[in-house]
Amino acid sequence: MEEIESAKQWYVLHTYSGYENKVKQNIESRASSMGMGDYIFRVVIPEEEEKEVKNGKEKINMKKTFPGYVLVEMIMSDDSWYVVRNTPGVTGFVGSHGAGSKPAPLLDSEIEVILRRIGLSARHQEINFEVGETITIIEGAFNGLTGKITEIEMEKAKLKVNVEMFGRETSTELDFEQVDKL
What we know:
Elements: H1 2-7, E1 9-15, H2 20-33, E2 40-44, E3 47-54, E4 57-64, E5 69-74, H3 78-85, E6 90-93, H4 108-117, E7 134-137, E8 146-153, E9 158-165, E10 168-175, E11 179-181
Antiparallel strand pairs: 1-5, 1-6, 2-5, 3-4, 7-8, 7-11, 8-9, 9-10
């Protein structure tokens, strides 16, 4: 299993603008129907919330961070490359020199920044946290402190943790990357 985790990498696809959601659906359904679930994992369209005030009412819209681009986490093989490359709406991989050449994956540091901005985790290994477990905080304002997990949000890769400060318990929300098991 660890071999698969290390082979997983993120790639950027160029799509027809406005077709990002359709491309995401198409890749997910093709991966399933063509038996590529062990090679094609997550498909992500980076979006950010944008607040807009119209007629005195605040409205939140989702704005694509990179219009015309979709991120895909996959293990690059001839078959997985073919399935993704020939998905309707995909015009090509970014970082490919054409003529059937395989693209360059995103660097870990690049994908971590993108995924963190949209509230997802880039961590490869599955984390098995449990409510009530004590963890050490390794990043952020509470770096070096320990705390108890009170809530786990797997989809967002976030934890609610109670940390003791100045004799009081303080609740904070942390990303999986910000903590380590004791």
